[in-house]
Specification:
277 residues, alpha/beta, 10 strands, Rossmann fold
């Protein structure tokens, strides 16, 4: 099987658990997704289509499988020996867990930013250039690095100290450096697992503003425990909960304004109003 050709047409229908389908193209879809760690089922029968060039927030109580779901979107769960994935994840109409699909290429096309800033022990320049070098980039590296740093709204702050360590930056700057590193390899989707939970309110707001710019170029899927952040920053919201066996499941998915003002499910209303979680 050829791996996710760039010129393939994407035509995945978005079907939320209930209600009408949004009239927008989806970039990636989980279909009947279940993930196990050994004998423990972490998530069960997830059907979720994330809209292209929009921000989708995944919310829900701790342990409901939000991070497990997004780690499935770029096969990061493959790195956990006990993990097992059932169902499909469709990207460019290809099941990324299908035979012949290269997980390294999946991770290039679907980038990830983690909860805590994790710059490499390298210069600011080399942090951004590293992924491109590994992927055999043959173009003008200085231009690529500057472009990625500009997209991450970091260029003006670091352009005179590109040879300094990434560790010399503040926490918020380090996280924007990690975003620049992720987008330097030209992904189509950027996954973010609680990217502002370790940051102060000012740095958090900078990241949220940055996301609004980035969604013009990328599809963004973000896990957050911050209800205000989900309401402010996302276009779509998926609410997850746990069943009696502590397996995560999707309760409700739709436009963020609908989820927060007129949710279809009582459980969703109880969660976003702070009655549990």
């Amino acid at each position: 099987m050829e791996m996710l050709e760039k010129d393939q047409e994407i035509d995945l229908t978005i079907i939320p658990p209930s209600g009408p389908a949004p009239a927008e193209r989806s970039a990636v879809r989980a279909r009947d997704l279940s993930v196990f760690y050994g004998d423990f089922q972490a998530v069960k029968d997830i059907d979720l289509a994330c809209v292209a060039n929009r921000i989708t927030a995944l919310i829900g109580p701790s342990g409901c499988g939000k991070s497990t779901v997004i780690r499935s979107f770029n096969r990061m769960n493959d790195l956990i020996p006990s993990a097992r994935v059932e169902g499909q994840i469709l990207f460019d109409d290809v099941d990324i867990y299908g035979p012949g699909v290269d997980p390294v290429e999946v991770r290039r096309r679907v980038g990830m930013v983690f909860q805590k800033p994790n710059p490499f022990p390298k210069s600011i320049y080399d942090n951004v250039a590293w992924g491109a070098k590994v992927n055999g980039f043959k173009g003008e590296m200085d231009t690529l690095v500057e472009e990625a740093l500009r997209q991450a709204v970091l260029w003006d702050e670091v352009k005179d100290k590109l040879k300094e360590s990434g560790y010399s930056l503040s926490g918020g700057q380090q996280q924007r450096l990690c975003i620049a590193r992720a987008i330097a390899v030209k992904p189509e989707i950027v996954l973010m697992d609680e990217p502002t939970s370790a940051l102060d309110p000012v740095a958090t707001l900078r990241i949220e503003e940055l996301l609004q710019d980035l969604k013009e170029r990328y599809t963004i899927i973000i896990v957050t425990h911050n209800m205000q952040q989900a309401a402010r920053a996302s276009d779509y919201t998926a609410f997850f909960n746990m069943n009696a066996e502590r397996a995560g499941y999707l309760v409700e998915y739709g436009r963020t304004e609908d989820i927060f003002t007129k949710p279809r499910e009582k459980t969703t209303e109880d969660y976003i109003t702070g009655r549990f979680g």
